[in-house]
């Protein structure tokens, strides 16, 4: 039996972060494609560093900043988010240091980041929407917008669309 899943109504205040989650899932897809196509792991390592430095790190910092405004420091949801972000950073660091290059690290990053994004979308954001008054959520997000700069993934070569093998 197939169960239909209805998309959850996202509070407009959380839409910018939610939109960036799409880029995170696309990043994971690109990693999977690179592994499937046998892309040079040094090129993929460069992409992981690029994505962390230009997109993911700032996104994680913004989420943590937002939760710091909305939840107490010892709140289990806030602690989980911060811990998972630290784990992502450690995985990125391991990939950078990896010698010899280890495909499993890329697979773990894909799996963990995908799971983290799904948790945020399916559990964290709905939870915040029920816990935090809409006005407070909107104010926090407006403050966040002053820090936020639009980000784009402009990494080349696009190894996920071709058979780019070398760095």
What can you tell me about this protein's structure?
The structure is a single chain. The protein is mostly helical and 167 residues long. The protein has one domain (13-147). The protein is 71% helix and 0% strand. The protein has helices spanning 15-37, 41-70, 76-97, 103-131, 134-147. α1 packs antiparallel against α4 and α2 (41-70) packs across α5 (134-147). The longest helix has 30 residues, at 41-70.
Structure, briefly:
The chain contains 5 helices and no strands.
Rg (C-alpha, Å):
17 Å
- Structural class by sheet pairing and helices: mainly alpha
Oligomer: single chain
The count of β-strands is 0
Averaging pLDDT over every residue, what do you get? 87
Strand content: under 5%
Order of helices and strands: HHHHH
- What is the CA-CA span between the terminal residues? 47 Å
Shape: elongated
Query: Helix segment count?
Result: 5
What is the helix content? over 70%
**Tally of discrete structural domains:** 1
Biggest beta-sheet profile: none
Strands, helices and their partners?
Layout: H1 15-37, H2 41-70, H3 76-97, H4 103-131, H5 134-147
Helix pairs in contact: 1-2, 1-4, 2-3, 2-5, 3-4
Salient structural properties:
single chain; mainly alpha; 0% strand; elongated; disordered N terminus
